[in-house]
Specification:
By secondary structure, the protein is an alpha+beta fold. It contains 18 helices and 23 strands. It is an enzyme of class 6 (ligase). This is Lysine--tRNA ligase. Belongs to the class-II aminoacyl-tRNA synthetase family.
């Protein structure tokens, strides 16, 4: 393993601690009495406390030092005095262990008493300190100059998402997003539980990926010698429980869809689905707007949220617009009674990319997504979807071409989807068979036929309404994050590129090219001050790594970064 200079130094310090008889990774518990927040809130001059956390800064003043300790609640200032820590003649604990063998990022525990500094800061006068964990890599801590300008901040998104453990340490404000995420889940659970509904669990590995139109991940069960699919939705299992006699069930489920990744989609995501017997989609609309109003208040203390340039208000009630009216309003085209061929030509004339695998439902969905969706900023229920778009939804009581379905749109994105659930087993079989026909035409997102679910419906399911909410997307709106990666602790990432170890000469050349790319070869060589042999070796190394190339135009040669 190639180690940096800093990593080598830290390992040397690790060995030095052990030689002094100090265990850098002790096994026994450390008796923390207060968090940094509790110290500040319950501050009493002279009070004895025991705290633990990461050492984040040190201001060495010779025989004394000020430092900052960061724990899960924030930071607290520490004061180390050599003669307090080392009462006798032996000053090794301060002079050697603290000043020379302790690094920023190390976990330490301290005991001491509270006092107020001359500038009014709440501080702990350390009487003893202990090593709890030695860090072997330096944290990418930002630097602040005298004017307050921040340098070397850990802001690169790919590095932050890939190393969330570092992101949370050096960018503690990120933690607030995940605190709010937990508040959202707790609020929603509380709302459902108070309504008398039951939280349940359903399978993640399924023999048939049902409940949604999506491309699944496929795996194999060795013992049974059968293919299995990662769950794309939990709908059909929750409905089975309604058949079995539960009046209301819900689940927060991890779903998996083998599709694209972008700022609003991750292959693994969290959805909430709830099904309530003897209800319809009109009842569910009122239930949904009351739910989201409650959750917004519990998460942010208000129904209002900022998302980008928009101010969104989750206070009920929400506007209601039919799918047909929405398309008519923003395109001038009436989808009512149109054939597949007419919809195909209409979508094409609007500049929407279409192909022969698309049925009526997919074509309407594409028109709505391209021309209408982005116009709905405030929470709006889009209702009464065409039947072809909703194979699990009950036919509309007033128009058999439509279904009793709504989606909730916020800032141009769908965050909730709900139905009056289809409970006619014969109609459901016909809808599944229509999906099978689409699959045979090449639609790889069409639904499978779930024979066991059809059998369950034949035993009878009461009138039911169901609701699904994308939890990741909802928390994006409540925390003003435009990227789903910001609200997931560990988003899916492309494989990490192997780190290229460069020589000092190679680093010198790269640094000069980053400052000014596309330099004449002779000029660049002169700037480096390298001998011919060292120059040739460095340039060959950079070319081998694919980092630079020499561009020849006539008699001139320039070096550029790849």
């Amino acid at each position: 393993m190639q180690l940096s200079e800093q990593e080598i130094i830290r390992r040397d310090k690790l060995n030095a601690l052990r030689q002094l008889g100090i265990d850098p990774y002790p096994a026994n518990l450390y008796p923390v009495s207060h968090t940094s927040k509790q110290v500040k809130e319950q501050f009493e001059e002279g009070k004895k406390v025991t705290v633990a956390g990461r050492l984040m800064s040190v201001r060495d003043q010779g025989k004394a030092s000020f430092a900052e300790l960061q724990d899960s609640e924030g930071r607290i200032q520490l004061y180390f005095n050599r003669d307090v820590i080392c009462e006798g003649e032996d000053k090794t604990l301060y002079n050697q262990v603290f000043k020379k063998l302790t690094d920023l990022g190390d976990f330490i525990g301290v005991e001491g008493e509270l006092f107020t500094t001359q500038v009014g800061a709440k501080c702990i006068r350390v009487s003893t300190f202990s090593f709890l964990s030695k860090t072997l890599r330096p944290l990418p801590l930002p630097k602040v100059d005298e004017q307050g300008h921040v340098f070397d901040a850990f802001t690169d998104p790919e590095l932050r998402y890939r190393m969330r453990y570092v992101d949370l340490v050096v960018n503690p404000q990120v933690k607030e997003v995940f605190v709010k995420r937990t508040k959202l889940f707790n609020a929603m659970r509380s709302f459902f539980n108070n309504a008398g509904y039951m939280e349940v669990e359903t399978p993640v590995l399924q023999s048939i990926p049902g409940g949604a139109s999506a491309r699944p991940f496929i795996t194999h069960h060795n013992s049974l010698d059968i293919p299995l699919y990662m769950r794309i939705a939990n709908e059909l299992y929750l409905k089975r429980l309604i058949v079995g006699g539960f009046d209301g069930v819900y689940e927060f489920s991890k779903n998996f869809r083998n599709e694209g990744m972008d700022r609003t989609h991750n292959p693994e995501f969290t959805a909430m689905e709830i099904y309530v017997a003897y209800k319809d989609y009109n009842w569910m609309m009122k239930f949904t707007e009351n739910l989201l109003e409650y959750c917004a208040i519990q998460v942010n203390g208000t129904t209002e949220a900022t998302f980008g340039e928009h101010k969104v208000n989750f206070k009920a009630p929400y506007a209601r617009v039919t799918m047909t009216d929405a398309i008519k309003q923003f395109t001038g085209f009436d989808i009512s009674g149109k054939t597949e061929a007419e919809l195909f030509e209409a979508a094409k004339s609007m500049g929407i990319e279409v192909n022969d695998t698309m049925g009526k439902g997919k074509l309407i969905d594409e028109i709505f997504g391209a021309k209408c969706e982005g116009n709905f900023i405030q929470p709006t229920f889009i209702t009464d979807y065409p039947k072809e778009m909703s194979p699990l939804c009950k036919s509309h009581r007033d128009n058999p071409e439509l279904t009793e379905r709504f989606e909730l749109m916020v800032c141009g994105k769908e965050i909730a989807n709900a139905y009056s659930e289809l409970n006619d087993p014969i109609d459901q079989r016909e809808r599944f068979e229509a999906q099978l026909a689409l699959s045979e035409r090449g639609d790889d997102e069409a639904m499978f036929i779930d024979q066991d679910f059809l059998r369950a419906l034949e035993y009878g399911m009461p009138p039911t309404s169901g609701l699904g909410i994308g939890m990741d997307r909802l928390i994006m709106f409540l925390t003003n994050n435009a990227s789903i990666q910001e609200v997931l602790f560990f988003p899916q990432m492309r494989p990490e590129k192997k780190q290229i170890e460069l020589s000092e000469d190679e680093k010198l050349i790269i640094g000069l090219l980053k400052a000014e790319n596309n330099q004449a070869l002779g000029t660049l060589k002169e700037k480096t001050g390298l001998s011919g042999k060292k120059w040739d070796a460095a340039m060959k190394g950079l070319a081998k790594h694919g980092l630079t190339k020499v561009v020849v135009e006539g008699d001139s040669k320039t070096v550029v970064l790849n």
